[in-house]
């Protein structure tokens, strides 16, 4: 029984010297992060396909059970909108090949303008993807959440391809007006959609966005603790990513989420102790 947890990145200035040792060479940052969390969102690949040598470094710094949920480049999802992107996809798959089993899922995040009328393009794209990978899709158009027919169509397309629907739960962020600069920025950038908790596969993936106040973040994730505990009892192996607008405490909060689930499911394997931020001394 395994629950993987992680953050949106593995290096973040507010974590340095507080949660993670500082300074750290670039080739050691992911290794240190991986002592805290056993999954990470691969957001950087959205902006550019990484060099294969860079991905080889990621693999060296993590064990085979570590999970990367790697986002497809925006040239495929946003610019070409899943059409005519065969060369970009081949280059991307070749680059991430060194991750091996660590590539838990390839994440197809679609723009907010990708509407139910575009579902056919998604179906065709999924049919053309190679085997050997799991695929996960995130949609942001409100109709997929408000219209039962649109949601049902998307679920059928995803289920037919063995792909997961990734919810990005921002409901806690939008419960009340922002109270920090980071929250105000998040209000302008994050999708405002209802919470969705249905899993389509045995490897559900959740993205949860809380508030900069840790207590409000913890209070807001209580429904997810219950849902994830139920998934584990059903034999599923979920991955949950914890975000806050400033992400200053996201590393600690991801582990706190794991602890909260384990309180409901004592058989859940605990996370290992993290690398201390300060070097150990004899005195």
Automatic annotation (TrEMBL):
SUPFAM superfamilies: TM1631-like. InterPro entries: DUF72, UPF0759_sf. It holds the Pfam family DUF72. This is DUF72 domain-containing protein.
């Amino acid at each position: 029984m395994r629950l993987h947890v992680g953050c949106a990145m593995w290096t973040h200035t507010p974590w340095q010297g507080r949660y993670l040792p500082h300074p750290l060479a670039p080739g050691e940052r992911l290794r240190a992060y991986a002592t805290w969390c056993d999954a990470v969102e691969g957001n950087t690949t959205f902006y550019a396909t990484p060099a294969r040598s860079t991905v080889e470094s990621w693999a060296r710094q993590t064990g085979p059970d570590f999970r990367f949920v790697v986002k497809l480049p925006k040239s495929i999802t946003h610019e070409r909108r899943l059409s005519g992107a065969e060369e970009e996809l081949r280059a991307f798959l070749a680059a991430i090949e060194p991750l091996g089993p660590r590539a838990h899922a390839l994440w197809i995040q679609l723009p907010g303008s990708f509407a139910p009328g575009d579902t056919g393009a998604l179906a065709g794209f999924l049919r053309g993807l190679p085997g050997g990978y799991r695929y996960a899709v995130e949609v942001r158009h409100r109709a997929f959440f408000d219209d039962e027919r649109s949601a049902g169509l998307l679920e059928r397309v995803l289920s037919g391809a063995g792909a997961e629907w990734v919810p990005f739960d921002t409901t806690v962020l939008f419960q009340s007006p922002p109270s920090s600069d980071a929250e105000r920025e998040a209000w302008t950038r994050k999708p405002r959609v209802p919470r969705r908790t249905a899993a389509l596969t045995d490897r559900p993936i959740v993205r949860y966005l809380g508030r900069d106040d840790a207590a409000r973040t913890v209070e807001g994730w209580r429904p997810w603790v219950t849902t994830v505990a139920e998934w584990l009892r059903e034999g599923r192996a979920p991955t949950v990513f914890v975000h806050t607008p400033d992400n200053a405490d996201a590393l600690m909060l991801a582990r706190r989420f794991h602890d909260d689930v384990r309180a409901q499911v004592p058989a859940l394997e605990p996370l290992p102790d993290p690398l201390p931020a300060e070097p150990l001394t004899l005195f």
